[in-house]
Specification:
The longest helix is centred in the first third of the chain and has 10 residues. It is globular, with a radius of gyration of 24 Å. The chain is mostly beta strands. It has a 22-stranded antiparallel β-barrel. It has a six-stranded mixed sheet with strand order 1-2-7-8-5-6. It has a three-stranded antiparallel sheet with strand order 14-37-36. The chain has a single domain, classed as Maltoporin, Chain A.
Length: 695
Amino acid sequence: MRGYLTSCALGLVLILLSPSARAQNSNIVDDIIISDYRIFRGDNVPTNSSIVEPSFADIAPIQTLNQIAGVNIQQGSGSESLTAIRSAVLTGGAGAGSFYYGVNGVSVRAAGFGNVNGFLDLPFAGAEQLEIYKGPHPILLGSNALHGGILALFDARLPAGSHVNSHVNSQANSPANFNERANHLSVRAGSDQYLSASLGGVLASETGPSRLAANLELISDGGFRADSGYDKQTALISHYAQARGWEIDSFLAFTNLNQETAGFAQGEDAFRDREIALANDFPEAFRDVNSLLLGAKFSREYSLAGIDHLTQIAPYLRSNEMDFRLHFLPGQALEQNEHNSAGVTIDHRVKTSDAEISFGILADFTRGSLYEFQENETEFSFIQGLHYDFDVKARQLSAYINVNADFSKRLSGRFGLRAENMDYDYDNNADSGIFGRFLRLEDREDSFTYFSPSADLSYEITPRLSGYIRAAIGARAPQISDLYRVQINQAEGRADVETLDSVEIGMEGHFNARSSWAIAAYGMEKRNHFFRDADGFNVVNGRTEHRGFEASANLYLTDHLSLNSNLSLERHTYDFNRNVGNSSEIITAGNRVDTAPDVQSFTEISYQPSHWGVGLSWTHLGEYFTNAANDRDYPGHDIFGLTAHYNISDNMLAQLRVDNVTDKLYADRADFAFGNERFFPGRPRSLYFGLSRYF
């Protein structure tokens, strides 16, 4: 299968050899969402959402998304990562089910089959734009968007295209107007045998409104730790056409990853020992992933009785497979999981002079399986032999309504409600009963129904200043891993619908046409929180509270000097008590949730006088606790980066990137589990050089 997908990826190169002209910068842009793939536009309503444009200069999603207030992506080994959006860094089913990852409005995984390493399935680098939603957005995204979502857009009609450098065209006097070029070939080489190439372009019909866009990226990384290299191929194809009064947007996205995984560096402050940090005690660990998503959207606008209507029908197919070694657990079992889905969203909008009403349905049908087997000898309660072998059929049905209304020239609002039902049909293929710590259930069926309302009010104080208030309740059904990957301590309880109540207030403004700022404060309460503790046991019926303040600014200090900065002040706490034998895992109400720094910030200053430019960035991550009892912690870190570019000609660009300029010893991720301090060490000082050619 992996060889077949790689061959398909290479074959897509033929599509890209067509002349046209398009490329773009990759800055964080205005917070107003503009994608035509959004079900609800609300273009005049300030929200807690942002758009970023990925840069080919970025090595990993962390380097793009951590520029956004409230977002904390922790890098694991190779392509692995864990996400936090207005939350602690969540693992297991909690991490898999709390964040939405999608392409052109379609989730890359079915709602109950989430992947805690969400970026493994998301073709991040090839996307034209990324929409980041902070906090629950139930009407738009539904399940798996409890704390937020990340939506990748690749649309043949978008005016963007090459993701070259975050400084290209960031100044008005940039000599090479790369925005007017479409086809590009970019190559990059760097430390630790890193090589990558990106090829993209657009083919537009000369006889009608038809456009084909495609982007292919190939990456090979030797890894800075022993036995940790990976090869990854991603491809995105988008096509736009018109037929019989319908507009048709279709797309295909696929990702293939073959990775040799480095496990945790273990021991007290192990990340401070360079020899330990660069070693790998789990050379047999690996992860193989392939993901395929195919979708289309049929849209038609018409008028009835003087009222404008828009109907959209969006069917899709998805397929996901993943094999990996559970190196982070004693016993290091092998897991194999897969699922295949078919679904459709049908949406209808009615628009009047001062309101827009949207309503629709979603139906998703999925078949999936999970198999876990431990070859190694028994360690603790992680027994040798079969752990789980089950199949699940799932049905997701949703109905929603949303109303955008203008109450006056300055006051507008948005109100919505989503109802959702998740049905699971679980079939156990192994003997039922208790096996070590693992409890294999008899065949069963489960059904969950829940409702998620939201409301926004926005007020334009002045033409350059606006404020908003937002309330929403997010809800999600349990993941299949929550329900059927059961452990012996769950015998008296099971996972239930998890909810997150959220209230937020914010303001945003513009100093001038090029400089903007935003602030927001929020409070959230989570109920029925299902998570995995540091001993690997599942916890049901947890409660947590979340408070935060965010500030961001994008300023042009002079014609050549700009500043981009964000700050997040957060406090995530447990709101329940749990007494267990392991003192490090005793939870007391008011304790901080582990892996939840109170302070995060990012600042980048850029200077571009003419056809060259430089940028210096500073990432600050504050101290955080690594266990529930709050008696272990990670001290935080400060990391500096440097970028530079030089426009060699009107159609050629050279780039330089230096990560961790001071070669600091730090940890991308720190936790405490099974009695050990564990770390994913941060990458040492690394150098990357790239060339991009436009034609």
